[in-house]
Amino acid sequence: MTSGPAVAIACQGGGSHTAFSAGVLARLLEGDELADHRIIGLSGTSGGAICATLVWSALREGDRARAAVLLDEFWADNAASDPADRALNAVAMLAGLAQGYGMLPAVSPYHLPAPSYGLDRFREMLARHIDFDAIEMDDDARDPMLLLGAVCCFLTACPAEDKPDNKGNDQVGMRKPAPKPMPRY
């Protein structure tokens, strides 16, 4: 680990913003811009949380270059590459355009039937790229801090075990309780 200036990286979520974050992160970690900096923390919301977790897992292994590879592999896996996914994306884009022009009523994708199909596919993809069992508390603060945020917008469609528990922990992707809260300074 370098002993240079400390930097924390925040990863934006939100569709194409997330893809942009992944590309910028990959470039920064492959290049010389951060070579003399200590990455002390990563944060992300929604898709940015995925980017942050992928980078964090590589940094824990001491391999910044691997972070770029993990980002590329995950987002390539997430791309609509088969005809069915491409057709579904095209229909969704057309529906969005029609909604924008007032030709269709506004409908949230979270209110469509069978959102669990996509959720199941998404969980499988996450498991292929992130070793959730390796995520544990770092009481000695050896690794960069990882702070993640996400919202389950369709709680009525989630199976009971995927709903937030009574402590406010959303365990959709990671079936572990959230670690103890961070102290306030």
Short description:
This protein is mainly α and 185 residues long. It is 42% helix and 10% strand. Helix 1 (16-30) runs parallel beside helix 2 (47-60), helix 1 packs antiparallel against helix 3 and helix 3 (64-78) packs antiparallel against helix 5.
How would you explain this protein's 3D organization?
Helices cover 42% and strands 10% of the residues. With 185 residues, it is mainly α. Helix 1 (16-30) runs parallel beside helix 2 (47-60) and helix 2 (47-60) packs antiparallel against helix 3. The longest helix has 18 residues, at 83-100. 16% of the residues are buried. Mean pLDDT is 77; it is low at 154-185.
Features:
single chain, 185 residues, mainly alpha, three-stranded parallel β-sheet, 42% helix, disordered C terminus
Determine the structural class based on helices, strands and strand pairing.
mainly alpha
The main sheet comes to: 3 strands, parallel
Q: Using the alpha-carbon principal axes, give the shape.
A: elongated
Give the averaged pLDDT, no decimals: 77
Which stretches of 5+ consecutive residues score pLDDT under 50? 154-185
**Biggest β-sheet: strands ordered side by side in the sheet:** 1-2-3
**Distance from first to last alpha carbon:** 25 Å
Record field, number of beta strands: 3
Give helix and strand order, one letter per element, not per position.
EHEHHHHE
Work out the radius of gyration.
Answer: 18 Å
Helical content stands at: 40-55%
Number of helices: 5
